Amino acid sequence: MIFVKRILARINRVINPPKNIEDEFHAKYYYSKVWAETYFLGKKVFKCPNDLWIYQELLWEIKPDVIIECGTFHGGSALYYAKLFDIMDLPGKIITIDVDAMPDMPEHERITYLLGSSTSPEIIEKVKNAVKNKKTVMVILDSDHSKDHVLKELELYHNLVTRGSYLVVEDSNINGHPVYSGFGQGPGPMEAIEEFLPKHPEFEVDKQKEKFLMSFNPNGYLKRVM
Ligand SMILES: C[S@@+](CC[C@H](N)C(=O)[O-])C[C@H]1O[C@@H](n2cnc3c(N)ncnc32)[C@H](O)[C@@H]1O
Q1: Which atom of ligand 1 is least distant from the CA of 100?
Q2: Which helix (H) or strand (E) holds 205?
């Protein structure tokens, strides 16, 4: 099945070639799969370095008390945020959620790992308790990238994001935006954003966060403006 999907994705790439130089580079970078071999202090982090730099700027800009991350994987991104808080001498904490626990997840006093689905009532309850009375809360959705799951996360987590802070929807580049048109699960994060935003004028896409011309999160940096 995976093999068939890969062939279909390849055919799609030939039928729908990238439309401009940015998309062409995005496709070249994405299909090289180097993002799956990217490390922070020896821990795998599934991100494009452009986005990692944007996170560094974001953390400095909004100084979140808590980051809620859906999708831990090896914990490389959680460690990255924790070390940034260390360097910036900020009090920030990270709560990161995953259905699976990897054996090599880094230990850091700022990081709390929650095991379970990001949309389960038990996890939501724990997260809500953890952010109670926090001044600045930021949320990053980087777990199951199917549209339905991302929409559910958006509905469950958007209210935790404080005004002026961000709700980041990761990997909105898949399903043809501009890569991976043959994304196996059909519509993905971009389609979830498109359905969510018209009903939530309190959030606006911050296109400035795509200033490096290639982001894995196009239209995914949602700023809470009211
Ligand atoms: C793209 S990886 C996360 C990458 C990580 N944030 C990073 O930047 O290195 C996605 C993770 O989401 C997890 N996941 C899948 N479905 C989930 C769910 N319903 N709830 C929480 N995590 C889930 C997977 O187990 C996987 O580890």
Answers
A1: 25
A2: strand 203-205
Give the span between the Cα atoms of 159 and 185, in whole angstroms.
27
- Tokens for 46, please give them: 């599934």
The residue whose C-alpha atom lies closest to atom 20 belonging to ligand 1 is 117
How far are the Cα atoms of 74, 156, 170, 184 from residue 167, in angstroms, in the given order?
21, 12, 10, 25
Token code pair at residue 61: 């800009």
Q: What is the CATH number of the domain that holds 27?
A: 3.40.50.150
Indicate yes or no: pTM above 0.90.
Answer: yes
Q: Which of 55, 73, 80, 183 to mutate to test the pocket of ligand 1 (most atoms within 8 A of CB)?
A: 73
Token pair recorded at residue 165: 């802070």
Q: Using N-to-C axis directions, what is the helix angle for 189-196 and 147-157, rounded to 10°? A: 40
Annotate 152-184 with b (16+ C-beta within 10 A) or e (fewer). bbbebbbebbbeebbbbbbbbbbbebbbbbbbb
Residue 131 domain boundaries: 2-224
> At how many degrees (to 10) do helices 76-88 and 49-62 cross?
40
pLDDT single digits (tens) 42-73: 999 999 999 999 999 999 999 999 999 999 99
Q: What tokens does 199 get?
A: 């009903």
What's the total number of domains in the chain? 1
Ligand 1 pocket residue status of 77, Cβ below 6 Å: yes
The two three-digit tokens of residue 89, written as one number: 């001498």
